[in-house]
Specification:
Largest sheet: 2 strands, antiparallel
Strand order of the largest sheet: 1-2
Number of strands: 2
Number of domains: 1
Radius of gyration: 15 Å
Distance between the termini: 31 Å
Order of helices and strands: EEHHH
């Protein structure tokens, strides 16, 4: 898993390696459990999760729905900006960065 966040000091998005979980060909519920367990072990609050980077296979859509249900329990929700949110966010930050230059 990779975590991305905004760094005020660097004025850019930073991407950090968080954890590897070897699941093989897994169902959405197994991936969900791995994410929830990893966050709980490391004391990361689920409500701080903004979105899941994914493409559009059915497992990823199911995973997003399962994580959304968990987030409702902590009175939060995922930001949903389309099928391939990685490209949308990357382009948005790229455009914003150009604005600052």
């Amino acid at each position: 898993m990779l975590l991305s966040s905004w760094c005020n000091e660097k004025r850019s998005v930073i991407v950090l390696f968080y954890e590897s979980v070897l699941l093989g060909h897994a169902h959405a519920s197994a991936i969900h459990d791995a994410i929830i367990d990893a966050f709980a072990i490391d004391g990361i609050k689920l409500k701080h999760l903004l979105m899941l980077g994914r493409d559009n296979p059915n497992v990823n859509i199911s995973l997003e729905n399962l994580i959304e249900e968990e987030m409702k329990k902590v009175e939060s929700h995922l930001l949903k900006i389309g099928r391939c949110n990685l490209h949308v966010v990357h382009s948005g930050f790229k455009a914003g960065w150009m604005y600052f230059l």
